[in-house]
């Protein structure tokens, strides 16, 4: 008996993506991804970039087909939900046969400005914040920050705000206490040492007038409000109807002497959004209608009318069914859903050699070994998870094996130590087959997450293969 051959035939053989893919192809693809991730600092900007990319590649808004009164085989359609979520589909086959969807989220952990944010204390103007999603607060001190978002004025007009991304712009900082003065924090828990109400952004220190400061209660704050008024035409009350987000002012950069890694803010989960989007655009054939779904608010539970719990895409499907003259589906939309499969495209936690104790190493993804399949997420006893059926996992892995896609399996840390959720369960409850599948990361939820360029490219190829061949 040849034990080497026996081992090869019986054990799970994982292969580095770098050993099988052309480095130039990987670099070319991830260079284009850099453009996307550098622009897409918020969910609104990610949606804007996605729509522009779709339109460049022949996709048209749903309203175009409504005006035509029809959709035909070969048409490409997209729909935008409140500037924060996007659904795009290639109509290649009857809807009743189902859809192959890659679903990702385009929001990321960040700090939002409070509704009435500008305050002054000790002649320093600051903007008060409320953190969004799961963050380690100490990550956000003393790094350069940008401000992006929209303000709705009293006349109803919408003003786009973007400060810090241009090299000539100022940036913002949340200041930290120097180590010489923080000895009283040394014995506190991290969760207690860094208080959310002290995460205020520095916005200015000069008074509007030094001749009449005794007549004005907050002269520095007033100067900041005047600067905003001069630049954007807004007043303080307008900030109540605003969505202004504080994000890292850190461009995507290659990491390592071999430049094999890529660091950026917002890999979670815009890396899966971009790979899913470009895979849809590049897919040449399809067994079922391929679609990408990009949603908001995953980091805070997928609530709200732009989150995954709001199934606006089903409304779009009904519109498409009517335009495609598949009227029988309008009363039985479940026929589409139960014949559909969704890859819940979200990132996973790669093994960090510095923190191996956080993982079950036999069930943890590694950088450079391809897309990670996660049968379940959740926490503890699999609470709040989809837990994909074995049959679906079997179909996906067999397809990837047949097509030469590098894949690995993963869990989100040790059983009672780790845990987390994705959008998967909100689609399985509608009858779709759902499996989590995405890019492994180091430093997830930090201001500067790290991914392997090889995994990014391989995930793109995996989604493209799923679009083209899943369901045969």
TrEMBL record:
Family matches, as Pfam families: Peptidase_M18
Cofactor dependency: Zn(2+)
Top-level taxon: Bacteria
EC number: 3.4.11.-
GO cellular component, one term: cytoplasm
Metal-binding found in the keyword field: yes
Record keyword Metal-binding present: yes
Broadest EC class assigned to this enzyme: hydrolase
UniProt keyword terms in alphabetical order: Aminopeptidase, Hydrolase, Metal-binding, Metalloprotease, Protease, Zinc
Molecular function, one GO term: metallopeptidase activity
GO biological process: proteolysis
Family: Belongs to the peptidase M18 family.
The protein's name in its UniProt record: M18 family aminopeptidase
């Amino acid at each position: 008996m040849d034990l080497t051959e026996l081992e090869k035939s019986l054990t799970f053989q994982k292969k580095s993506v770098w050993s099988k893919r052309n480095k130039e192809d990987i670099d070319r693809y991830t260079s284009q991804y850099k453009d996307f991730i550098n622009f897409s600092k918020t969910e609104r900007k990610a949606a804007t970039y996605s729509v522009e990319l779709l339109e460049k590649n022949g996709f048209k808004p749903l309203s175009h087909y409504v005006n035509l009164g029809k959709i035909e085989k070969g048409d490409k359609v997209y729909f935008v939900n409140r500037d924060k979520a996007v659904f795009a589909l290639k109509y290649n086959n009857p809807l009743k046969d189902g859809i192959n969807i890659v679903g990702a989220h385009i929001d990321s952990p960040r700090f939002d400005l409070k509704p009435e944010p500008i305050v002054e204390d000790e002649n320093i103007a600051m903007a008060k914040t409320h953190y969004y999603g799961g963050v380690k607060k100490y990550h956000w001190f003393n790094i350069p920050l940008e401000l992006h978002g929209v303000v709705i004025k009293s006349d109803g007009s919408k003003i786009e705000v973007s400060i810090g991304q241009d090299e000539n712009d100022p940036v913002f900082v949340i200041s930290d206490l120097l180590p010489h003065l923080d000895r009283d924090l040394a014995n506190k828990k991290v969760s207690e040492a860094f208080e959310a109400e002290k995460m205020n952004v520095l916005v200015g220190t000069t008074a509007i007038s030094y001749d009449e400061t005794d007549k004005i209660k907050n002269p520095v704050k007033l100067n900041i409000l005047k600067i905003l008024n001069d630049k954007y035409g807004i007043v303080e009350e307008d900030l109540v109807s605003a969505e202004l987000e504080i994000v890292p002012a850190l461009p995507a950069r290659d990491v390592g002497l071999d430049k094999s890694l890529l660091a950026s803010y917002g890999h979670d989960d815009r890396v899966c959004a971009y790979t899913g989007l470009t895979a849809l655009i590049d897919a040449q054939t399809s067994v079922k209608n391929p679609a990408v779904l990009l949603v908001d608010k995953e980091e805070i539970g997928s609530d709200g009318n732009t989150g995954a719990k709001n199934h606006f895409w089903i409304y779009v499907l009904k519109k498409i069914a009517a335009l495609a003259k598949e009227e029988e589906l309008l009363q039985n939309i479940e026929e589409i859903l139960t014949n559909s499969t969704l890859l819940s495209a979200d990132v996973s936690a790669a093994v960090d050699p510095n923190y191996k104790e956080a993982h079950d190493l036999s069930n943890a993804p590694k950088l450079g070994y391809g897309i990670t399949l996660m049968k379940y997420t959740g926490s503890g006893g699999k609470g709040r998870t989809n837990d994909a059926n074995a049959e679906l996992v079997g179909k996906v892995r067999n397809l990837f094996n047949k097509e030469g896609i590098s894949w690995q399996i993963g869990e989100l840390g040790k059983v009672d130590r780790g845990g987390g959720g994705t959008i998967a369960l909100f689609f399985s409850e509608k009858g779709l087959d759902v499996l989590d599948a995405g890019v492994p990361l180091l430093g997830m939820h930090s201001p500067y997450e790290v991914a392997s360029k090889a995994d990014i490219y391989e995930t793109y190829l995996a989604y493209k293969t799923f679009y083209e061949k899943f369901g045969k």
